[in-house]
Amino acid sequence: MSLERQVKAKIAAKRNPQQDIEAQEWIEQVLGAKFPAGELYEDVLKDGTVLCQLINKLAPGSVPKINTSGGQFKMMENINNFQAAIKNYGVADVDVFQTVDLWEKKDIATVTNTVFALGRTTYKHPEWSGPYLGPKPSDENKRDFTEEQLKAGQTIVGLQAGSNKGATQAGQNIGAGRKIIIGK
């Protein structure tokens, strides 16, 4: 098998059809419109218009101009505008797909992961009342200890420090003992 085919097979193996369906259903719920019947998930998202409409629903005015006609560069501009808008919304750079992943359908799994990252980020925006996608991210649970509590903690030896409550290896014989033979 050629290297190119191996790479394509590996990327295809990453794709989870169930996640694609969940992402599509979430987008449809947010937009209040179904995807066109008979069209594939990646084909609907390819020109970036649906993605731009999605971020504009979550954060109005994020993408002021959505290109609905023009050449491929205008459509790729939609994707780039969407990516910039979701970064401003709070999605981490590492969670954002590359434009070619969607436009050339090179890695649709990464596109779906980006949609999930956007869905998780909506939890952090109190102005958004739902629907949500994916698990809710945890919040920081900062704790303040008094000096007395911190000093009390220093006297305790944790098991990670190597304490084994006095146990030793004395008396353990594994295998035959060592024999020293003198003068042969």
From TrEMBL:
It comes from the Eukaryota. Residues 17-122 form the Calponin-homology (CH) domain. Transmembrane segments: none annotated. SUPFAM superfamilies: Calponin-homology domain, CH-domain. Pfam families: Calponin, CH. Belongs to the calponin family. PANTHER family: CALPONIN, MUSCLE-SPECIFIC PROTEIN 20. This is Transgelin. It comes from Cryptolaemus montrouzieri.
